[in-house]
Amino acid sequence: MAIERTFSIIKPDATRRNLTGKINAIFEEAGLRIVAQKRIWMSRQQAKTFYAVHASRPFFHELVDYMCSGPVVVQVLEGENAVARNRELMGATDPAKAAEGTIRKLYGESIQANSVHGSDSPETAAAEIAYFFAGSEIVG
Ligand code: RTP
Ligand code: MG
Fold first, then answer.
1. Cβ(110)–Cβ(95) under 8 Å?
2. Residues 52-99: tens digit of each pLDDT
3. Known binder of ligand: residue 24?
4. Residue 112 C-alpha to ligand 1 middle, in angstroms?
5. At which positions is ATP bound (predicted)?
6. Which of 117, 122, 123, 139 is 20 to 30 A from 53 (CA-CA)?
């Protein structure tokens, strides 16, 4: 299995509750390496562009407001099968439906404030990584 990269966000509900370290420990214990990471406060424009695929969904404006409601940690995770592996670690979008032991089951507050984002395919991962990181900021 080839080494792959995925893009991750520790969302505002998780940074507010000081959960960055606990979430990073889950990634690292699962064999994913954090090869880039920075704490930012997203602008509305950044959030709108990042979630443009959801622009027509009823929850879009709330989602943009939420993603700009506090700091987030954007990161690049690297490892075998990193995209799928991270989606497994995150669990279902709705924390109430997420499997035991997943990040969203452990820490998610609601379907919106669900603690983490993870890319849904290698192609999306490449685009999301390039949106937030310069190549020189990623140190594998
Ligand atoms: P993500 O993109 O953040 O990793 O999450 P996901 O693939 O599991 O979920 P997606 O369908 O892509 O939705 C993106 C984010 O929008 C918020 N959401 N709110 N109010 C709602 O019904 C609703 N549905 C989704 C969540 O923050 C979700 O992660
Ligand atoms: Mg998604």
1. yes
2. 999 999 999 999 999 999 999 999 999 999 999 999 999 999 999 999
3. no
4. 6
5. 11, 59, 87, 93, 104, 114
6. 139
In single-letter form, the type of residue at position 63 comes to L
Q: What is the pLDDT of residues 109-118, one digit of tens each?
A: 999 999 999 9
Rounded to two decimals, what is the model's pTM? Answer: 0.97
Integer angstrom CA distances of residue 50 from 8, 12, 36, 92, 107: 12, 15, 18, 20, 23
User: Would you say the CB of residue 112 lies under 6 angstroms from ligand 1?
Assistant: yes
- Tokens, residue 16: 């507010």
Q: Which two tokens stand for residue 128?
A: 């999301």
- In this structure, the number of other CB atoms found within 10 A of the CB of residue 36 comes to 22
Alpha-carbon span 69 to 15, nearest angstrom? 11
